[in-house]
Amino acid sequence: MAAGTLYTYAENWRAYKAQIAAQYSGARLKVASSPPAFTFGQTNRSPAFLNNFPLGKVPAYQGDDGFCLFESNAIAHYLSNDALRGSTPQASAQVLQWVSFADSEIIPPASAWVFPTLGIMQFNKQATEQAKEEVKRVLTVLNQHLNTRTFLVGERVSLADIAVACSLLWLYKQVLEPAFRQPYPNVNRWFVTCINQPQFKAILGEVKLCEKMAQFDAKKFAESQPKKEAPAKKEKGGKDAGKPQQQQEKKEKKKEEKKPAPAAEEMDECEAALASEPKTKDPFAHLPKSSFILDEFKRKYSNEDTLSVALPYFWENLDREGYSIWYGEYRFPDELAMTFMSCNLITGMFQRLDKLRKNAFASVILFGTNNASSISGIWVFRGQELAFPLSEDWQIDYESYNWRKLDVESEECKTMVKEYFAWEGEFKHVGKPFNQGKIFK
Amino acid sequence: MALRELSSLEKCLGLKKPNKYSTQGERKVPVLQNNNGPAVVGLVTIASSLVRDAKKTELLGNTAEQRAVVQQWLEYRVTRLDSCTKDEVKVILKELNHYLEDKVYLAGNSFTLADVLMYYGIHYIIMELAVQEKEKYLNVTRWFDHIQHYPGVRHHLPPVVVLRNRVYPSGQH
Ligand SMILES: N[C@@H](CCC(=O)N[C@@H](CS)C(=O)NCC(=O)O)C(=O)O
To answer: How far apart are CA A64 and CA A51, in angstroms?
Structure first.
């Protein structure tokens, strides 16, 4: 049974094919899709990567035994079992037929239609209309085939279903609104069945079918323009982003003058996919590099004395521009009953904020006793804004707190940081004794 | 009939030890006599208890909704399908054909006991259909073919040939 690593950026439908195949076959597949294991535009340009995968494209697979493969269909084939590949010469040829059909008949018109609606490609009415017609033609072929069949090849799910369903994924999510898909009931039945198989669901999650055909997103397209060169020159883009607005704009203009706006077709779908979800990638990407190494402080805080080592280190090294300090107080103290429940409230919040750990540190304290308690904490965040609005996952708890930005130079801030980090002191503003503390790190 | 069906179901579920059944009454309702406990009576009740014995309760549905739809079709099987007259067969086929237009399985998106028992119960009807009728009830035929190919299902029943390419292209359903 194959076991290895799949390199890709997150949420890549090409990688899904291999991941779903592995769900069926039981192949042990690790996915390297985020730093430090994989950074799109960097890892896949490194000499070591190019040595194994000369195109530098993803998805790319490396087995634990060293076996390397590129091209998503080859990887999915390798990670399949015989049932998925088709167990007779006829069946396996039919599987290959549909896999190729997906690549050459579905993907080109699907991309031409969907990308402008994601705001990642310029809109061209004629091209979109032509793509719609081609999509109709493809759906008609599939609908006819699935009239008498449950799955594309044989009576079980095969790689053919995986490849074709994955290549229709964006269409069904973005543009195939009920009226448009209504003439293809067999395709709809088959698609819904596929995406609801547990092996698909494990990878795709809940797929929401399009309710209203998405149209060209001009605003998003305009916004996404500067990002276009980001993957190639990530570092530079990052630095630029930190510079004052005006200067940046000037630069942008210069670039535009130098070379004419790149043709929409130049942007390939991977960049497109990346640009479409910039926020989920790294919400702090726009910030300039900071001199304050939060991890180093966390190490000091965990391993050494707080008052004599960690706190002096904190104040000496804190980058006042790259970080901000906040006081957060739970808004509904009257609802806090038993202390163990209040503690769960805090740890639950920490869990939901898991992805924020790299960019934040906090000490949150429960004061008082059963039925007479309060919760408040000191938070150190990357950037000058509250981080919570940057990601949907982070908003669950944040509205239950009052947030106040502290003036880093003020005595109040110094005192609070000291008391909350050390879990001792007067806590004058609270008026209840310390009960227990939790550290977010 | 019901007894052979139950023994096929046992095999399909991978139950090693065959149970002994009897029937009761004029309509030959199957009865499973447990060693220690009251008798289990009726096809649906016995089939469901076999599924639980085999620890394959996903065949009774994974969600509350799917479980309810499974029960609905089990009931349909014994109350409607099993007692239907020759004339009613066409109505049932029409109903089913319409229902299966946008579904691969009877309940939810996975294979359940409802598919097995409906397959057992309708087999004799599909056997008798002419090619033209099979095309008329295309969705039923497609579902039937899928279920008869489902691993371990078709034990005591002969396979029914289903054509993939239509012979009567004009025979719209
Ligand atoms: N046909 C290939 C296409 C792979 C591909 O185009 N990968 C893009 C991402 S969608 C890529 O890695 N581009 C990186 C680059 O060109 O540097 C497959 O299916 O695997």
So the answer is: 16
